[in-house]
Structure formats: structure tokens, C-alpha cells
């Protein structure tokens, strides 16, 4: 019986030593190989062009502080998470026309030219919010935008203390990126 226990103890010792050798081999191999990760925040990543963070608005080429968005609401309706809120800018009120409802013969305007049609209202958003807490980064909004007004940001180093820190006003962000401050508008 003692011989069996001794053989088993030696066998367990050899297995344990072999496991130690295998572990040291893995550790040594990774110790001498080049480092693949960085020690954040001591170092930062410099190849973030392919990183897809939260979405952001794209400005017009001649007016970078004005978004390309035409308020078609495709991004809002296609978002499975419901994290996008776009409010269309209100159209300016038309001046009251007294003669609009009255027949022209009564007003003595027969034969006069019609007034030119009102200019089309600008299709710009007055509010563009993203709740990044709900976003699933599916990219559907980026794909469906007909004017390419939305893109992924390269904002790798975002951090916050509460959920409110991740609710973005993307119009303000676009103005800030274009160099306009809050007081400029």
C-alpha cells in the first residue's frame, strides 16, 4: 500500500512540475514578444481612424457649423434603440394675406401678376440629440442617411460620472468642432 501511495505522490509531483514548466513557457514567450496593448493613460493609441464611436453630425463643406441634415427623419425611424431625437426647425410664419381668401375681382387686382412663391423653408434641425446610453452602435442611421450627414466619431477616450454625461447635443458638438462657441450663435 505504501508503494502505491509513494508512486501516486511522485506522479502528482511530476504532473505539478510539468504544469509549472508549461506555465513558465507561456509567460516567457509573452515576456519576450512585442507588446500589443498599451498602458493607458500613460500612452494613447494613434491609429483610431478605424474606431467607430458614437455618431456625430457632418457639417456642410462651406459652412462646417451647419449640419448637412435635411430632417428626413430616416435615422430616427430606422434606429432600433430609439436613441436619436431630431426636432425640425419651425417654418417662419407667412405674413397675413388679406386677399388670400377674397376673390381678386373684389380687390381690383384682375390682370396683375401673381406674387412670387415664398421661398422654401430651410430643412435644418433645431435640436439633434443622441442618447448614447441606449445606442447599440449598429450603424443603421449612418447607412440610411441620404445626404451623409451622420458618421461615426473617433472619440475613444470618453468617460463620465452619470448617464447624463452620455446624452449628446450633436448640434452644439458640431458648432464646437467647427470652432464656433456657444456665444457665437
UniProtKB/TrEMBL annotation:
<keyword id="KW-0411">Iron-sulfur</keyword>
<keyword id="KW-0874">Quinone</keyword>
<dbReference type="GO" id="GO:0048038">
    <property type="term" value="F:quinone binding"/>
</dbReference>
<feature type="domain" description="4Fe-4S ferredoxin-type">
    <location>
        <begin position="126"/>
        <end position="155"/>
    </location>
</feature>
<keyword id="KW-0677">Repeat</keyword>
<dbReference type="Pfam" id="PF12838">
    <property type="entry name" value="Fer4_7"/>
</dbReference>
<keyword id="KW-0408">Iron</keyword>
<dbReference type="InterPro" id="IPR010226">
    <property type="entry name" value="NADH_quinone_OxRdtase_chainI"/>
</dbReference>
<keyword id="KW-0830">Ubiquinone</keyword>
<dbReference type="InterPro" id="IPR017896">
    <property type="entry name" value="4Fe4S_Fe-S-bd"/>
</dbReference>
<keyword id="KW-0479">Metal-binding</keyword>
<keyword id="KW-0004">4Fe-4S</keyword>
<dbReference type="GO" id="GO:0046872">
    <property type="term" value="F:metal ion binding"/>
</dbReference>
<dbReference type="GO" id="GO:0016020">
    <property type="term" value="C:membrane"/>
</dbReference>
<dbReference type="InterPro" id="IPR017900">
    <property type="entry name" value="4Fe4S_Fe_S_CS"/>
</dbReference>
<keyword id="KW-1003">Cell membrane</keyword>
<keyword id="KW-0520">NAD</keyword>
<keyword id="KW-0472">Membrane</keyword>
<dbReference type="GO" id="GO:0051539">
    <property type="term" value="F:4 iron, 4 sulfur cluster binding"/>
</dbReference>
<protein>
    <submittedName>
        <fullName>NADH-quinone oxidoreductase subunit I</fullName>
    </submittedName>
</protein>
<keyword id="KW-1278">Translocase</keyword>
<feature type="domain" description="4Fe-4S ferredoxin-type">
    <location>
        <begin position="59"/>
        <end position="89"/>
    </location>
</feature>
<dbReference type="GO" id="GO:0016651">
    <property type="term" value="F:oxidoreductase activity, acting on NAD(P)H"/>
</dbReference>
Amino acid at each position: 500500500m505504501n508503494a502505491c501511495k509513494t508512486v501516486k505522490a511522485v506522479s502528482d509531483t511530476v504532473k505539478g512540475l510539468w504544469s509549472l514548466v508549461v506555465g513558465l513557457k507561456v509567460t516567457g514567450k509573452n515576456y519576450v514578444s512585442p507588446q500589443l496593448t498599451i498602458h493607458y493613460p500613460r500612452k494613447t493609441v494613434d491609429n483610431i481612424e478605424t474606431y467607430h464611436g458614437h455618431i456625430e453630425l457632418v457639417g456642410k463643406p462651406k459652412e462646417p457649423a451647419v449640419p448637412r441634415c435635411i430632417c428626413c427623419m430616416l435615422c430616427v425611424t430606422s434606429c432600433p434603440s430609439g436613441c436619436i431625437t431630431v426636432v425640425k426647425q419651425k417654418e417662419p410664419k407667412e405674413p397675413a394675406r388679406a386677399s388670400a381668401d377674397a376673390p381678386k375681382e373684389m380687390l381690383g387686382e384682375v390682370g396683375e401678376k401673381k406674387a412670387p412663391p415664398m421661398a422654401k423653408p430651410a430643412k435644418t434641425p433645431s435640436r439633434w440629440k443622441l442618447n448614447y446610453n441606449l445606442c447599440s452602435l449598429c450603424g443603421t442611421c449612418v447607412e440610411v442617411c441620404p445626404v451623409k450627414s451622420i458618421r461615426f466619431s473617433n472619440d475613444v477616450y470618453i468617460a463620465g460620472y452619470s448617464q447624463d454625461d452620455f446624452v449628446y447635443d450633436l448640434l452644439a458638438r458640431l458648432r464646437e468642432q467647427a470652432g464656433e462657441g456657444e456665444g457665437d450663435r
